[in-house]
Design brief:
single chain, mainly alpha, two-stranded antiparallel sheet, 5 strands, rod-shaped, DUF4124 domain-containing protein
Amino acid sequence: MAAPALAQWQWIDNAGRKVYSDTAPPAGTPDKNILKRPAAAAGPMSASPAHPPVPAAASSSSPGDAAAPPAPQAPGVDKELEARKKEAEAAEAAKKKQEAEKLARARAENCQRAKTAKTTLDSGQRLATTNAKGEREIMDDARRASEAQRLQQIIASDCGPLPQ
């Protein structure tokens, strides 16, 4: 009864579950996910073709020994990945901040222009515009009222706080 218990494989599958079997894990299983190999699998003759022979230190039957060698490699990769992730997040945050500043400058400029135009419009002076033919036209009261309403909408949207 002890012999079959020694010939057990233990690994973590793609779904993250522990699998116990008397056959070797599938060919796509990384070595870091293999937690335990049978003692016979450590030898060069009986090693699974899907997995290269394991060094003597990693072929121990205790799960603690088998999991120990991959541990130093994983944190190095994780630190590098974390550094890249932080760098990408910082670049994205800087890009968003730059876009927000650009939008704020455009809003401030539009606000200032609209206020200046509204002040000129409210002064009561005669205002002239140029039509599509290049002819000069004096603004009538209806056109002045519609332009005042348009400028007031611009002031309301661009001179207040940013919409969330």
